[in-house]
Amino acid sequence: MSIQPDHRIGKNAMQLVLLEEEEHLYGEKLKEQGFQFCLGKTGSMETQKVVAAIETAAKRSGVISPDGYRETHALYHAIMEALHGVTRGQVQLGSVLRTVGLRFAVVRGKPYEAETEGEWIAIALYGTIGAPVKGSEHEAMGLGINHI
């Protein structure tokens, strides 16, 4: 049940979210390896708006199916895990006077050699978090991985 070295889904999601000028080249590499992905940006003082933006992008791009519950459920758990990293374990924003400005990458694929391990989804978040005052924010990053 070993992970294929170039199929580490979390590492691929983090690299994709951090790239800006070369993301299209990296994206081609991911497609060649059988991964699906999407990229986007979101910012808000409300956690539900961040979750909704990522979920909408994943559905519109075809990374997850808009029908059914299983894929959306897996995506939700990966998003919440990634938000724990960004918010340092307290997934609260506006209620504690914090706001985020984030880039996100959603990557779906088969990181394991064994077909029986199935598909997984990873969410990488990178950006800023802080008081809703320009210049009061700092960098933050989060990663969430879940099986589908």
From TrEMBL:
Q: Which GO terms describe its molecular function?
A: mRNA binding
Indicate the quaternary assembly.
Homohexamer.
Encoding gene (name) = hutP
Q: Give the family from UniProt.
A: Belongs to the HutP family.
Q: Name the chain's protein.
A: Hut operon positive regulatory protein
What Pfam families does this protein's entry cite?
HutP
- BP GO annotations: L-histidine metabolic process; positive regulation of gene expression
The domain of life is Bacteria
* Cross-referenced SUPFAM superfamilies: Hut operon positive regulatory protein HutP
Function per UniProt? Antiterminator that binds to cis-acting regulatory sequences on the mRNA in the presence of histidine, thereby suppressing transcription termination and activating the hut operon for histidine utilization.
Q: Which InterPro entries match?
A: Regulatory_HutP, Regulatory_HutP_bacillales, Regulatory_HutP_sf
Provide this UniProt record's keywords sorted from A to Z: Activator, Histidine metabolism, RNA-binding, Transcription, Transcription regulation
